[in-house]
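Lecture notes, part 5. Sequence design as translation. It can be helpful to think of inverse folding as translation between two languages: the language of shapes and the language of residues. The source text, in structure tokens, appears below.
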């Protein structure tokens, strides 16, 4: 399951703790996001909030230089579909790194678009855990914490209260998001100390998801190490190369890490990418 899809699915369950932190309100009604047109276009999340505002949220795990144009297009679709009322728009990035490079609007003659960009890493996990909702609890794994083991135990404790089918689904989603943060192994270790251990063992689907989460966590750690080493030797990576590193497989990252020690130039480190692009 892709990170954006997992977060979107959790939002569609309501996530009142997250929405209250982002907007100061919760969803009175989650609205359909399919709009009739020649092309099929679907915003990530649209809701009418309890304070009456129409709220549109887009989720981003990677930089999109065309984000502002997408937000403008969605604004017209959403506002037009709901009586031409104003729309509060926001982009929720998975990481601070993505949030920093995300466009926040644009100005053209006669046209000005602005929206807020927020990072999950900047959010407070406490309201998510306090909401008592499994969707909020799972999303709390994306928030930054100096005491991550305590956070993981708090999340797993929330999941223990769920009925078995919902608990298995929530565990799978938790592992997808834990992999993004490089936390798959700590989640698995903490789960094994709780009654959840029996949920994982013998369940082929959960064991597969946990294995995938561990692999993603390993890749994330290798990507951070590679970026640090290339920056030390050659200076900051170009944005496009930084994105490719963060999305690369474990095998690719290992190959590049081996090269960065002796490569005379940055191009030599990523020589296989350069050949592919030619």
């Amino acid at each position: 399951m892709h990170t954006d899809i997992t977060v979107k699915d959790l939002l569609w369950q309501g996530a009142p703790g997250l929405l209250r932190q982002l907007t100061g309100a919760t969803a009175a009604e989650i609205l359909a996001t399919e709009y009739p047109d020649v092309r099929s276009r679907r915003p990530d999340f649209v809701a009418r909030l309890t304070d009456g505002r129409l709220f549109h949220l887009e989720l981003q795990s990677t930089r999109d230089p065309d984000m502002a144009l997408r937000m403008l297009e969605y604004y017209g679709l959403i506002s037009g579909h709901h009586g031409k009322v104003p729309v509060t728009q926001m982009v929720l990035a998975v990481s601070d790194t993505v949030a920093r490079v995300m466009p926040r609007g644009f100005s053209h003659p006669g046209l000005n678009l602005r929206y807020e960009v927020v990072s999950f890493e900047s959010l407070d996990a406490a309201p998510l855990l306090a909401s008592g909702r499994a969707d909020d609890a799972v999303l709390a794994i994306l928030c930054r914490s100096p005491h991550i083991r305590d956070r993981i135990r708090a999340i797993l404790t929330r999941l223990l209260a769920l009925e078995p089918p919902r608990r298995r689904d929530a565990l799978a989603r938790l592992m997808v998001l834990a992999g993004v943060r490089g936390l798959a192994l700590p989640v698995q270790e903490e789960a094994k100390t709780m009654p959840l251990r029996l949920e994982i063992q013998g369940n082929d689907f959960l064991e597969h998801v946990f294995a995938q989460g561990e692999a993603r966590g390993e890749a994330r750690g290798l990507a951070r190490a590679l970026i640090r080493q290339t920056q030390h030797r050659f200076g900051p990576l170009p944005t496009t190369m930084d994105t490719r590193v963060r999305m690369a497989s474990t095998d690719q990252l290992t190959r590049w890490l081996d090269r960065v020690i002796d490569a005379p130039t940055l191009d030599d480190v990523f020589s296989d990418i350069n050949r592919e692009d030619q």
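The translated text above is only one of many valid answers, since several sequences can fold into similar shapes. The beta strands are 27-30, 45-49, 54-60, 87-93, 105-108, 111-114, 116-119.
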